[in-house]
Amino acid sequence: MNTLHNFLFNVYPYVCLSVFLMGSLARFDRDQYTWKSDSSQMLRAGQLRWGSNLFHAGILFLFFGHAVGLLTPHWVYEPFISPANKQMLAVVAGGVAGLVCFVGLTLLLHRRIFDPRIRLTSHRTDLFILIILWVQLMLGLVTLPYSISHSDGATMLALSHWAQSVVTFRPDASVLVDMDWPFKVHLVLGMTIFLLFPFSRLVHVWSGFATLAYVLRPYQVVRSRRLGLHTREDR
Fold first, then answer.
1. What is the pLDDT at residue 232?
2. CATH assignment, 2-234
3. Which among 202, 163, 218, 235 is positioned nearest to 37, based on CA atoms?
């Protein structure tokens, strides 16, 4: 068990991150026409609209919330909020966002499974990744009672310490030895999602972040054809 624990939380994160980055680059280089999320908006548009909006709003909040919460050093927020209060804030905010995301994903999953026309046009990987995300959300909601029972903030500090140790290439799985099982399974499945990312429809997330570059691009100068004619006549 010690060997498995060390592999899952000391080695497996780097395996997943390597495949995530290199696999995304390879897919963009070799299969650019698959770099998309297949649309089925002509079928059950109302359920799609509700499910997609709830899912994306919830998942974006959870993603950035996890990133900021786990990767922000303790000394940064210590003057403003205690670990216990930060953990309670994460439970409340994450719980609300998790429920919103769970409802949206359930609508999307129900739509793909129980509508025969959508099911026939869906790839197996589409259903597979939706089911994995659904299970991951369930595990995240299961961890909430465990977090509330450890209200001193120790759980938050241990998870943050592990995440920051991975990012700084000094992995320390020892802080997770006594962690409750839902947290461990949640972490492993979360890393597995990064491992599967390049091989699924999730790659379209990169395109979503890439559109932010349009905010920074310079204005495009467009000259009218009429102005061009006047210019030639003047010459």
1. 44
2. 1.20.950.20
3. 202
